[in-house]
Fold this protein.
Amino acid sequence: MYDSLEKAPETHTRIHKNIWQNIWALDNIMVNMAKTDFEWDLEKNDANVRKHGVSFSDAQRAFLDPGRLIAEDLEHSQKEKRYYCFGQVDGMIMTVRFTYRRQTIRIFGAGYWRKGRKIYEEAQK
C-alpha cells in the first residue's frame, strides 16, 4: 500500500484517479478487523444472490484477503459514505460495496466485476 497518492504509480493515478485518491487512506478502516462486525439486510442479500450469485455471508471473505483494497465510492456517497472492498475469494477478485459505522460493516452489494478485478490487479503490481 502507498503512504500517499504521490507515491502511487502514475498508471494508477491516471487510470483510476478517483478510486486511488482514497485507497491508501481508507485501508485503515480494516486495520482492527477483530473488533469489526458485519451486517446486512436479508432481502438485499437474497436479491444479490439472485442477481450476482454471491451471498453477503460469502462476501465477508473479501475483507480477509491481506492484499485487499478499500476505496471510497465517490459517485454514490451523498448521505452516507460508501466504500468498495476489492479482495480475493476462492481465486477470484470480489468487489463488495458497503458502509462503515460504529465498528460495523454493512454490506449492500457484492459480485465478481471486471472493473474491480482490474483495480485489484493494478494494485498488486
Q: What stands out?
A: Residues 42-52 form the longest helix (11 residues). The first strand starts at residue 37 and ends at 39. The helical segments are 10-15, 17-26, 42-52, 56-59, 114-124.
